[in-house]
Write a structure and sequence with these properties.
Two copies of one chain form a homodimer. Chain A has about 210 residues and is an all-alpha fold. Chain A has ten helices and no strands. In chain A, helix 5 runs parallel beside helix 8. Chains A and B meet through helix 6, helix 8, helix 9 and helix 10 of A and helix 6, helix 8, helix 9 and helix 10 of B. Chain B binds a DNA duplex (30 and 30 nucleotides) through helix 2, helix 3 and helix 4.
Chain lengths: ~210, ~210
Amino acid sequence: MPESAVAALLAQGQPRADAQRNVERLVAATREALDELGLAVTTRDIAQRAGVGLGTLYRRVPSLDALLAAILTDTIDEMTDRAARALDSPDPWQGFAEFAETYVQLRASSCGLHDALSGRGERLDLEPRITRLQRAVRQLVRRAQKANVLRADLDWRDIPFALATAIPPGHTIGLVPSGDQWRRNLRIILDGLRPARSLAPEGPAEPAAPSD
Amino acid sequence: MPESAVAALLAQGQPRADAQRNVERLVAATREALDELGLAVTTRDIAQRAGVGLGTLYRRVPSLDALLAAILTDTIDEMTDRAARALDSPDPWQGFAEFAETYVQLRASSCGLHDALSGRGERLDLEPRITRLQRAVRQLVRRAQKANVLRADLDWRDIPFALATAIPPGHTIGLVPSGDQWRRNLRIILDGLRPARSLAPEGPAEPAAPSD
DNA sequence: CCAGAAGCGGAACAACATGACCCGCTTGGT
DNA sequence: ACCAAGCGGGTCATGTTGTTCCGCTTCTGG
């Protein structure tokens, strides 16, 4: 019973044992390559990592984009699940902070997911899945804001942006980010997101856009 | 007296008046294209924007990379000047915050600069200029930390990263950033960078790496 | 006003990248 | 041991991009 998009894509009768093994390798290799290279992966990257030829790749997969879309759909859906589960946490801040960390960690650890959520995967038609995620996050943010554990002087949409930016865009000023740079960025951002800030006297920025 | 890299690159005897006009258009077009398209600009982008042919471009410019490098060198140097000037501000926080805004604004308004500072411009050999900028920023950060107006529990290097991340990486979760999204992100980040935070009880992240 | 040097546009070239296909050989499973 | 299913990777078609070239046009000094 193909629950996942990947399983659905690769549904097949009774392939030979070696063929099955290759498909699994291929999927694993694609995930890896997607993590490292983002949406710029090529068929050759994948085939090489999987240790198979291009012919093998195209035997089971209709096209590169279909494969990428299937994998990313599953990844995004998993993140949506996490957001939904965070809503079960009784403490609104804890639920939010928990998800924030998951969200940033997942994005930071997969360039492919980062690209997709940054709107660079238009050709893959992921919008419906992204919209579901968006709704879940909005609920989480709104709940925390209503409980007054998250700044309410910002539009809810500013929060996903703030979180997303925890991922370093590459080097900076000649400095190379360490693998957990996102963690320290997130710490700063979460601190900045708590309400009742009385500091930052002459900072820039005015209140955000109208809500919803 | 060519003070700027661009002027040096384009130094020439006494070009015909129309040729001079074209060179100016070309430089302006390159700046524009670099802002919008980042380091992915092509010669055709530039020529088209300038309203000239490719031949005209190559008449005065040895190569695309040389042109990009010259323009970015000037831009980075200007930013270094701003950092140096911020050191003149008597108030350490004000100097820092002032520069932070300039820094983020410039980066947000030019994809080319953003790319270069994110380490994507290796082929252009900008490291020496970036190193100068890095030194100026370090001074600014250190001064603010010593004055206890900026969290001292972070390595100074974390601060440029935190600032750089104010620039949205594109869309997020299907949301499209407005042109001044960076301003709201920066606000959150600057708030998170003030010292004496007593909030964020159960947040993740441990203290940063050893300094220097 | 005119000759000729300076300049121009953009077609053409070479190098490369990339998605997709095909076909002769190999191999698993009965 | 047989043979269909499967495989590898050479090959093709296409698109992109930096750069050059050359026939025509436009300035400008006298």
